[in-house]
Design goal:
The complex is a heterodimer. Chain A has 14 helices and no strands. Chain A has helices at residues 5-32, 37-42, 54-62, 65-96, 102-114, 121-130, 137-162, 165-173, 178-186, 191-207, 210-215, 224-234, 239-259, 261-270. Chain B has helices spanning 26-46, 63-70, 74-108, 114-122, 129-139, 146-153, 170-195, 199-207, 212-223, 225-240, 244-250, 263-272, 282-313, and strands at 49-52, 55-59. Chain B has a two-stranded antiparallel sheet with strand order 1-2. The longest helix of chain B has 35 residues, at 74-108. Chain B is globular. The chains are: A mainly alpha, B mainly alpha. Chain B: It is found in: Cell membrane.
Chain lengths: 274, 314
């Protein structure tokens, strides 16, 4: 396809203009966190006149941000670990063995891809209450783990199927048990798929707001998104504090993304367009 | 689908420890059944009973559904929110997915700096929806917000307005913020679709005289149909589940005057807050959940079929 010089120039203008649209609000958020309130209101668009970490200090003192951060890390970390381990075991079973119920079981897991789990929130709430888990981080971990399993089983089963069967036959002849075949031979081979599963589920657990909003009441057990929402309610007029809070809550994900952007972008689409 | 059992690579387990293999899927199965399947099916049951607070009352049949669709203010709330969800879907399709396809196409055509642009477009998707909501609420602030300041600075001062306070612009503002958030992900999906087009097909079309827009319409778009279909389904599901951004920007009443209400926000109000006027209404909330479930699941069922069809082909 040939394009005229003018057409080509227009393409560059559009591409880089949209880059500004995508990045500018994020840059603004970070820049504003270093400003004073006065500076934000009088000069909202400019860069900060000086870099001061005062606001971050204040943020640390006004809200238990360290608690929020730890809760987010703990909940997302444990959920992703459980999803990956449990789904890998199930996917191994579904992809490498055939019993008469295998098809049904696979289908049963895939139903979860169509179910918006948010709509089960009322029964979930009562279930967590009767299990005595309401108001604990485990209520979140269990929901995230359960709702992450379908996509993980789907992706991992697909990958396990692509591995040649000779590999495990050889391993079995060498005397490996099912678990050893799974753990030592196959798991290392599906590492890319595991990375995909980890990324997809980590993003959704880390950023989720709905379940902690309903399950968690205690201030020190809140995850970052809910903590931020509370901050907004209470300090609506202190913009520099708000911007610092937003920046701090976005930072971990941005840093991980900058370190592994390729893996992130490929991982996220792998589930959708294989 | 039933053929999976007769999979070519199926192995008949042998040996003494073979029953142990049945333990492998158990943890996933138990957690998933208990915390996904059970709650969703309970929501169906709940919708058929009367509720007093958190206590289940007598069997009510379809009464909750009838109330939802025939009694005011419920009837009006439903259709008002439903309309907003539809608008959400339409605007996302046109603005977010349209832009995203254009950007994916530019990157596909190997524009300079493509790797960096891809990262930049995707950046907003990394933020939590709550962060996005609060950030844009600040940007759109009527007095101190950077957007109105910017408009004034470039001489468009009369365009400045309280975007989120005006019932005419509030919903559109929220949906456009959602477009800002989601365009990068859509771009990646479309790019994956574009990159899966075999080079030879494009080459052959070029030899047949296809150029520019003709090439785009007649060759490239049809070949991108799988990724366009997937993205349409994603967008639909997301539009009908829209909750967090609205809640972060306009609270649980869909202010101003319910002009930004969505079905999920309305559902949250019925099930979890007395703000909707009266007590928490678990029966009504569950009935609404069932209706939303039917809307979303019937569309996702199509997506599941598509995914399975493609898998068979592999």
């Amino acid at each position: 396809m040939k394009t005229s010089i003018g057409g080509r120039a227009a393409q560059y203008v559009i591409a880089y203009l949209f880059m500004l649209v995508a990045l500018y609000p994020i840059v603004l958020m970070i820049a504003s966190s270093f400003k004073t309130n006065m500076e934000i209101f009088s000069n909202p668009l400019s860069l900060p006149s000086s870099f001061s970490f005062e606001t971050y200090k204040k943020l640390w003192e006004t809200v238990p941000f360290a608690d929020f951060l730890w809760n987010s890390i703990f909940v997302s970390g444990v959920s992703v670990l459980l999803i990956t381990v449990f789904s890998a075991l199930a996917a191994f079973y579904l992809a490498r063995f055939s019993f008469k119920w295998s098809g049904l079981l696979y289908f049963f897991f895939l139903i979860g891809l169509m179910i918006p789990i948010k709509l089960g929130i009322v029964p979930l709430f009562l279930l967590m209450k009767s299990l005595g888990l309401l108001g604990t981080l485990w209520s979140l971990i269990l929901v995230y783990t359960a709702s992450g399993i379908p996509i993980a089983v789907f992706i991992l089963t697909g990958f396990f199927r692509t591995l040649p069967v000779e590999l495990e036959e050889a391993a079995r002849i060498d005397g490996c048990s099912h678990f050893q075949v799974f753990w030592r031979v196959l798991l290392p081979l599906i590492r890319p798929a595991l990375a995909t599963v980890v990324i997809i589920n980590f993003i959704s657990a880390w950023n989720d707001f709905f379940f902690p909003l309903i399950f968690i009441q205690k201030e020190t057990l809140k995850t970052i998104p809910v903590g931020m929402m509370m901050l907004f309610g209470e300090y609506e007029t202190d913009w520099s504090l708000l911007f610092a809070g937003l920046t701090l809550s976005a930072l971990p994900m941005i840093v991980v993304f900058l370190l592994a952007s390729r893996q992130f972008m490929e991982g996220l689409t792998a589930g959708a367009v294989k | 689908m039933g053929n999976i059992a007769a999979d070519r690579q199926g192995i008949r387990p042998k040996g003494r420890a073979s029953w142990l293999i049945h333990l492998f899927p158990l943890p996933a199965l138990v957690i998933y059944t208990l915390f996904v399947i059970y709650p969703i099916f309970s929501a169906f049951t709940y919708s058929l009973y009367e509720w007093e607070g958190l206590k289940r009352g007598v069997f009510a049949g379809w009464k909750n559904f009838a109330t939802l669709f025939t009694v005011e203010p419920f009837q009006e709330m439903f259709w008002n929110s439903f309309g907003h969800n539809l608008l959400y879907f339409v605007v996302e399709m046109v603005v977010q997915n349209g832009t995203a396809f254009g950007l994916a196409f530019l990157i596909y055509r190997k524009i300079r700096g493509a790797g960096f642009l891809k990262m930049a477009y995707f950046m907003p998707r990394l933020l939590s929806v709550i962060v996005v909501g609060i950030l844009w609420k600040l940007i759109l602030h009527p007095n101190f917000g950077p957007l109105n300041t910017l408009l004034t600075k470039i001489g468009l001062g009369e365009w400045a307005k309280p975007w989120l306070g005006d019932p005419d612009t509030a919903l559109l503002a929220i949906i456009l913020v959602n477009c800002w958030f989601g365009a990068g992900f859509a771009m990646l999906i479309f790019l994956a679709g574009l990159q899966s087009i075999p080079e030879e097909l494009i080459e052959a079309a070029r030899l047949d005289g296809a150029r520019g827009l003709g090439m785009l319409w007649k060759i490239i778009l049809p070949l991108c149909m799988p990724s366009i279909t997937i993205m349409t389904i994603f967008t639909f599901i997301q539009a009908f589940e829209a909750f967090e951004l609205v809640y972060a920007m306009q609270g649980s009443m869909g202010e101003p005057f319910h002009s930004t209400d969505t079905l999920a926000v309305y559902f949250y109000r019925l099930a979890f807050s007395s703000a909707g006027g009266g007590d928490v209404a678990i029966g009504l909330g569950s009935a609404l959940a069932v209706v939303l479930f039917v809307i979303v699941a019937s569309v996702s069922a199509v997506s599941l079929r598509l995914m399975l069809k493609r898998e068979v082909r592999h």
